[in-house]
Design a protein that fits this description.
The chain is an alpha+beta fold and 127 residues long. The chain has a domain of 88 residues. It contains three helices and three strands, in the order αββααβ. The protein is elongated and about 45 Å long.
Amino acid sequence: MLNKYVNNCGSFYCDVSDIESVLQMLPRPANEREYYLLGRLLESDSADPIDGFDFLGCDLSDKTMTSSVLNCGPWRGSLAPFVSRLNSVGLLSVSDARRVQEILPVEWGADQPHAAVQIWALYGRAS
């Protein structure tokens, strides 16, 4: 998903093989603070590299694509130690994301919608 506040941006879903052609449809980053953000569902024990992109870290989201890291209140209890381990861009390591995915239903309650999450590997690219 791309920043909805940038003109001509939004969510574009594609296969890894189509990334370059999708990027051609988007406006180019105008300065060093702008970048392309790519999210890929994490399905293995590591974040597979994607040519031309830097791995930024992992986020967790429920079926509404709401981030459990950023949008679901402060992490307390057994989740609290993970807050201090967020990286410089506020994301989790792969191993921490896997552990938090297991803890959320216990800490928040299995019936809570934000506790059932998928792990997304996020990647960035300047241009």
